[in-house]
Amino acid sequence: MDRNSLLGLVLIGxxxxxxxxxxxxxxxxxxxxxxxxxSLALVEKNKKAVVATEKAVIxxxxxxxxxxxxxxxxLATQELTNKYGVFASAAAVDTSVYTLENKLIKVKISxxxxxxxxxxxxxYKNFEGKPVTLFDGDSSELALNFFANNRSVSTRDxxxxxxxxxxxxxxxxxxxxxxKYIEFLYSLKEDDYKLGYKVNFVGLNDVIARNTNYVxxxxxxxxxxxxxxxxxxxxxxxxxxxFTDNEVDYISExxxxxxxxxxxxxxxxxxxxxxxxVLIADTEFxxxxxxETKNGEEGDSYVKSTKxxxxxxxxxxxxxxxxxxxxxxxxxxxxxxxxxHNLEKQIPLGWGIFGWVNRFxxxxxxxxxxxxxxxxxxxxxxxxxxxxLLLLPLTFKAYLSQAKMKVLKPEVDEIQGKFKEEPMKLxxxxxxxxxxxxxxxxxxxxxxxxxxxxxxxxxxxxxQSIELRQQSFLWxxxxxxxxxxLDLSFTxxxxxxxxxxxxxxxxxxxxxxxxxxxSSQMANPQMKWMMYLMPIIFLGVFNSYSAGLSxxxxxxxxxxxxxxxxxxSFVNEDEIHRKIQxxxxxxxxxxxxxxxxxxxxxxxxxxxxx
Length: 610
Fold this sequence. Notes:
Blueprint lengths: L2 H20 L4 H58 L12 E5 L3 E6 L5 E10 L5 E5 L4 E9 L2 E4 L6 E4 L3 E10 L2 E9 L5 E9 L11 E11 L5 H6 L2 E6 L4 E3 L6 E5 L3 E7 L3 E21 L6 E12 L5 E12 L2 H6 L13 H19 L5 H15 L1 H27 L4 H15 L7 H20 L21 E7 L3 E4 L1 H18 L6 H18 L4 H24 L2 H13 L6 H12 L7
Antiparallel strand pairs: 1-2, 2-3, 3-4, 5-6, 5-11, 7-8, 8-9, 9-10, 10-18, 11-17, 12-13, 12-15, 14-16, 15-16, 16-17, 16-18, 19-20
Helix pairs in contact: 5-6, 5-9, 6-12, 7-8, 7-9, 7-13, 8-13, 10-11, 10-12
């Protein structure tokens, strides 16, 4: 190491020794530092004490909460026991949902109340294009009501335990033990709209009040909107029922109504326009059964509120059962008929002869044509032609009678002018003329009257035909309801808020056939005015009716006009006139009816023409 390096190291060492001496803390600085250290230690100690205190407080609070919760649970349990007795353990359980389904329907059953929660018809859509759900959620209620342990009990508020197999679900409501329970047993077969429903009572003979000889089954539904026209759906929804003597009846479709059925009942149906829900007893429901309907208000999303209360017998045996089943499905005539029990009578096809025409003529022809899988517009056309051919003899006879009356019109006018001041004499002379000519003034009316059952039957058939539901033809998207070529932003009184083209065509064709018929009839001016006014009135009535019905009447009118011109080419009025004149020369044979009329006239002192 050279001298310069050695000198540098000595200087560095001297500097370090000097710096260390100058930076040594004084006694006052050491005391202040110690004080700061002691303060920090005290703060940390206090912090630990606070944390410990907080933990103790939280622990004590948790202990108090546990005690409070235990006390609350005990009070709640006591409250449930006071309210439900032996069924208290079934009053606070989580809800579970079980499913049964086949190719036709999907049924969901809730543990709350053990009830059917929803039913979906897989092969049908509502007006929004969604699957038809007859009910869901809280829109339905199915509950047993009875007295047990001096308490009024409803299964609506209690939770059932579910036991599911392949095609059955047993929902059990336990009464404090596993060998005492109410069981709702549901079953569903393949390709069937029926849901089996059996109520079983097991070991409840000492639970249900001893003075009880029946339990009440309450069934309530809010009928959901399925169709485009809510007002028409309401007008076709109500409760139907059948007594044990096979008599089917119903309550008002348009009014709110409640009714007590004081005789035994086989089934009760909550029927909508195209779908129905029916509860059918294996034997019969005891009397009384109470039913009630209430229309939904403007703006409500449901069609109607329906309620039924059934009486189920109970005889305090250790085990008892009451068997029933539901029908959840379409109002299809053949399907309902196949279920038995006159379920098809829910479809209002008309009373008396009108219903017979639909059941034995219209429906068989319609079903036969339906088997060819044609468009329903074509089926209605062929059905109309078939019915017109069936009525052809009557139609021709009516036309022939009108032709005879037209030939006699000059002579009738002459008699009316001659005896216009003598009504009785006028009537006598008219009767004599008709008798001598061999013409009946009712000859044209009678065939037309015989056709009326067909016209009225079709008026009932088309709006109720589920086959037409959501079937399109030309501009109509759904033949079961009205067609609309123009939706109005306002409502025209007695007409509506839309324009139905099929109804317009029907009205125009009716006016045309009225004009054709009036030319060959002797209607007075007032009658002619009424004949032209009626189609205008029907324009408003049919504007919201089934497009299939208006289409049928339009076709029937057009075919009738064609028949009129066809008959005209075959009927020679000159020949008719010649035969009438020949008949006048022949001695007339009086019918028994004419003889009775003349006798009555003579008894009153009238003079009859020779």
